[in-house]
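Lecture notes, structural biology module. Today: joint structure prediction for complexes of two components.
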Amino acid sequence: MATQGAPVKYSKHSPALAMTLSLIFAGFGQLYNRRYIKGILFIVLEVSFIFTLGRFINYGLWGLRTLGVTPLEDHSIFLMIYGLISLLLIAFALGLYILNILDAKRNAERLRQGESNPKMKETIRNVWDRGFPYLFITPGLFMLTFIVILPILFTLSLAFTDYNQYNSPPGNLLNWVGWDNFKKLVTLNTWSETFFDVFTWTIVWTLVATTLQIALGLFLALIVNDPRVKFKKWIRTVLILPWAVPAFVTILIFSAMFNGEFGTINRDLLVLFGLEIPWMQDPFWAKIALIMIQTWLGFPFVFALFTGVLQSISRDWYEAAEVDGGSRWQKFRYITFPHVMYATAPLLIMQYAGNFNNFNIIYLFNEGGPPIPGKRAGGTDILISWVYDLTFEINQYNMAAAITIILGLIVTGFAFYQFRKTRSFKEEGNM
Amino acid sequence: MSRKMKSRLEVSAIYFVIFVMFVVIFYPLLWTVGMSLNPGKSLYSASLFPENWSLEHYKWLFTDPDSEYLLWYKNSLMVATVNAFFSVILTSLIAYAFSRYRFIGRKYGLYAFLLLQMFPAIMAMVAIYILLNLIGLLDTLTGLILVYIGGQIPFNAWLVKGYFDTIPRELDDAARIDGAGHFGVFIRIMLPLARPILGVVALFNFMAPFMDFLLPRIVLRSPENFTLAVGLFNFINQQFANNFTRFAAGSILIAVPIAVVYLLSQRYLITGLTAGGTKG
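The predicted structure, tokenised, for the full assembly:
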């Protein structure tokens, strides 16, 4: 690509000047580098960006800052969304701008070393080659931005406003209130007590329910894998059945089964032992029921996962252990267990994260109930179902958003920490 | 105790555990079947083995003019098909770019996918509701599908990228020498070789609308747009005990096809998950 022609001619060409020019207006640096078409393209791009989106961005930023000034006319929520879209647009434009500056600099450096500009055809080829991955990710990225990223930013913003059932647009304007909602959550007794209770139960729920389902799955996978067991295929099919039935159906069915008045568990089963347990009315028993149901729902996936891994462990390991006189427990402890954990760790972490946010089971079983007098959440509410209630039942949007942020931070922090340890992730990090 | 005796005891214990599990698994399922065959609508008078069993609830679901069950089934099928199709396309495009190209923002993009898949969907619900309202797609199946397609990207992009990574690069190079471009490699090498994982993604996304309850409940408002999950939930939400037998019949008709698909494809699913998730 580099030609020998006239190395002296461009030796005074300055990358710094090219960068400055491009900083002043996109494309100027490229013009200075004598890449006229590229430069004009950049200029057209910036001009059209300013002309078409300038007003929208200006309005959006104003809206985001003030959240509106005239009630009924300015809708704070829409303004906030416009503002966030503006921010995303600016971030995108800024990214392009930085690319433009870097491009000017690199090009200038190349010229300074005496290389000449590539021909038109080569340029097009280059743009196609290097732009290709962007072309491929653009549609997905676009959807991701509007369906995942923008909503998360929106929730983030809501947590710092006073948006609740008494103060909602278009009748009222929202205000930025800083960290007030978070402070309320920690200091105001009615909130902090509930928050603490719900938080503790969420942690207990996640740890107990998930560990139980993993333990049961592992145990069953091990015993079914025993060479002496016959009809393995049939047994496995049945054991996977709870996974195959849609969870929302099973949860609703369990909810009916545990019902105190007409549920089969009290009416048909426990009556044999002369027992009657208030599954739905007593928070303690409701929690026990939930953990049992989740174990029922969750173990088959783990079972199937482990079964697959168990079959892939080489016999040699066990034969070697037998030669050394290893006990069955030792074989499990030093061969089986590390193998299955190593292969499935990320998926098991996902199980914990999934239960931490297992809205379906809590909501469909009992809608987070039973209600507890003096508390703002139901007896079995976990953070996520509480957030749902706060948002969609009593419209405490700001508090719900604040709790959501705390929830999101916990999940991401935990998951990230764990993922970093797994191999596939490390490989990615090193690239 | 002789060794043989011990072994026999162990095997019996294993079978006993398995038997207990069978009972625990089948009891709720059979109970539902029993309920659905009860003639009355009420749970109070229903029993596990009804004396004069009937299929009237099933008939009602399909033939009664008040029943919207078939409509919901159609809605769910449509959402599921469209979702599966576009999800596979979008996801494989992204995964291909992330697996085979080095570009600015690649590493952070991967981190971002990982992070985003951890965020619970509910975090976004209020905003999605407002956004859909803003563009007039609230209470439409299109809106629901859009959210599904966008929301599945972070998780599935990782999965598919992991699988693409296992396809040897030499194949790409060979194809390039034979004159294939970026698109050619994608369509003629990557897609055919990644069929197992794309099948998994398609299946997941096909199943999601049948299983998901939260999102359609928020997005869909009018009964004629409901998917099965929301429709069935509303069946029993108002008068729990009074519609239960009908609900049982309706849920069996969803559960059976889904369960069959899952059982037939579970080996496939698990292999796909472990291969994509951990790279063996």
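Point to remember: Residues 1-8 of chain A have pLDDT under 50 and may be disordered.
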